[in-house]
C-alpha cells in the first residue's frame, strides 16, 4: 500500500513538472505563486524581527530608528565596528559567496536560470541585519528581495522544477518581498516585472500577483494593514504648480544621475581586498554618523518627519545630500546594504526641501511640504532604478490618494528621462552589473526562450539502444514504433538516427537475402548502416530553450538528448530536441 501511494505521488509530481515545462501552465504556476508568497512573507517577518528587536533594546529612544539619540562616541564607533565585522566575514568567503542583493539576483537569473544557494541566503541575512543594526546608511528592502528570491528559488530546486518555473518563482519572491516590506502588493508586482525580470507576460502576472498578495497578508497579520508611512491627505493645490514640479523633476534627475555615477566610480575598485574596501566605507561613515546622524540606519523616521512637514529647509537639504554621498560611497565600495530605502530617503528630503522653496516663491499656490516629499520619493526611486511604473505604483499605494497620480506621473517620468537621456545613465542595478563585467539579456527572443523548458517541446518517441543488434533484436525494437533511435556508446549516447532508416535497412537486407540468396547479416551496426545520423549532446530536463540553444552552440551537436538524474550515477533519458524544434516553436508562438 505504501509503495502504491508513493507511485501515485511520483506520477502526479511528474505530471505537475511536465505541465510546468510549457508557457501556459497557469494553474500550476498559481499554486507556486501562493507558496512563494507564504514562504517569503514568513522569511521577511523573521528578517525584520532580527533587525528591530536588537535596535529596540539597544537604542535609547522609542522605536528602532533613534540613532540620533546615541552619544557621539557610540555613533562614531558603531558603524566602524560593523564595517570591520562585515569585512572580516566576507574576507573569509570565496568571491562568489560574497555577492548579495538585487544585482546578484539579476546575475543569477541571467547566467544561472535563477538558481540561488542557501549559503547565499544566509550571507545576505547576516549582512542585511548587520548593516542596519550597526548604523550603516542602508535599507532593508534590497536584502529582503534577495531573501524572498533565494527561498523561492530553493523551494523550486527542492521540488526539482523546470528552470523556467524557477525563474518565475524568483520573480514571485521579489514581488512578495517588496509587498511585505512596504505593504504595497501592486508595486511589488510591477517591481518584479519591470526591474528584475524586465518583461511583462500574462502567464507571469498571475503567480506574481498571488505571491505579492499572500506575502502582504502574512505581514499584515503581524504589523497591521497600514502602509510603511503614515501619510496625510495630499493634493495639488493648483495647476500653476506644474512648472515647479517639472523643475523639481530636473533636480531629482540630476541627483539620481550623480548617485549612480558615484556608485559606478567607487565600484571600479572592486578588485581591491574586500576587508580594505569595507574598512574605508566604515571610516567614511564615521563623520556622517557624528555630524548627520539621520543618515544612519534605514531612516524611515526622518522620511515620516519630512512627509509631515516637521523638518526645516537646511536640515532637509543637508541630510538629503549627506545620504546621497555616504550611500553612494558605501555601496560603491561594496557595503552589502540595500539601496531602495536610501533612495526613498533621498527623494523625500530633497523633494521636501524643494517644496519649502516653492512655498516661499508661490505661497498662495504651493501645496504642502509632504506633497512634494512624496513626489520626490517617487521621482528618485523611478530615476535611480529606471522603473517609472514601479515608482508610480509605490507612490499611489503609499499615499492611497488618487489625487497624486497626475503630478506623480509627470515628475517620475521627467526625472527618469533626465537621468537616462540627459546623462546617459542606466538603472543602478544594470550599471553595477556592467561594472562587474556582466550584462543582462532582455531581448524579446531571449525572454521568450527562457519562459519554456525543453520538456515542453522534446520528442518523447525515442528508444535507447545498443550500437550492435541482431536482426531479430532490431525488428523487436521497431515494434514499439519509435521515431528516433538513441545509440549508446561506451560513455553514454553517441548518435541519433531515425527509426525509419533502420526499418529501411532491414527491408533492403531481407530483399537481398530473398533475391540474391546471400546470408543475412548476423549483427546490425547502427553506426555503419546507411542512415541520417546526428551527433548528440546532453541537456538537463530542467533546462530552458535558451540553455538548449547554448548547448547546441557550445557542443556543435546536431541534436540534444534530454536527461535527468534519477539516482546517484544514473541518468534517465526522456526525449530528444533538434534545433529546428526550437526554431519552429518560437516561430509558431510568435505568429
TrEMBL record:
<keyword id="KW-0813">Transport</keyword>
<feature type="transmembrane region" description="Helical">
    <location>
        <begin position="200"/>
        <end position="222"/>
    </location>
</feature>
<keyword id="KW-0812">Transmembrane</keyword>
<keyword id="KW-0869">Chloride channel</keyword>
<feature type="transmembrane region" description="Helical">
    <location>
        <begin position="76"/>
        <end position="95"/>
    </location>
</feature>
<feature type="transmembrane region" description="Helical">
    <location>
        <begin position="116"/>
        <end position="135"/>
    </location>
</feature>
<feature type="transmembrane region" description="Helical">
    <location>
        <begin position="274"/>
        <end position="292"/>
    </location>
</feature>
<dbReference type="GO" id="GO:0034707">
    <property type="term" value="C:chloride channel complex"/>
</dbReference>
<dbReference type="InterPro" id="IPR001807">
    <property type="entry name" value="ClC"/>
</dbReference>
<dbReference type="InterPro" id="IPR014743">
    <property type="entry name" value="Cl-channel_core"/>
</dbReference>
<keyword id="KW-0472">Membrane</keyword>
<feature type="transmembrane region" description="Helical">
    <location>
        <begin position="369"/>
        <end position="392"/>
    </location>
</feature>
<feature type="transmembrane region" description="Helical">
    <location>
        <begin position="168"/>
        <end position="193"/>
    </location>
</feature>
<keyword id="KW-1133">Transmembrane helix</keyword>
<feature type="transmembrane region" description="Helical">
    <location>
        <begin position="344"/>
        <end position="363"/>
    </location>
</feature>
<dbReference type="GO" id="GO:0005254">
    <property type="term" value="F:chloride channel activity"/>
</dbReference>
<feature type="transmembrane region" description="Helical">
    <location>
        <begin position="404"/>
        <end position="424"/>
    </location>
</feature>
<keyword id="KW-0868">Chloride</keyword>
<feature type="transmembrane region" description="Helical">
    <location>
        <begin position="242"/>
        <end position="262"/>
    </location>
</feature>
<protein>
    <submittedName>
        <fullName>Chloride channel protein</fullName>
    </submittedName>
</protein>
<feature type="transmembrane region" description="Helical">
    <location>
        <begin position="29"/>
        <end position="51"/>
    </location>
</feature>
<keyword id="KW-0406">Ion transport</keyword>
<feature type="transmembrane region" description="Helical">
    <location>
        <begin position="312"/>
        <end position="332"/>
    </location>
</feature>
<dbReference type="InterPro" id="IPR050368">
    <property type="entry name" value="ClC-type_chloride_channel"/>
</dbReference>
<dbReference type="Pfam" id="PF00654">
    <property type="entry name" value="Voltage_CLC"/>
</dbReference>
<keyword id="KW-0407">Ion channel</keyword>
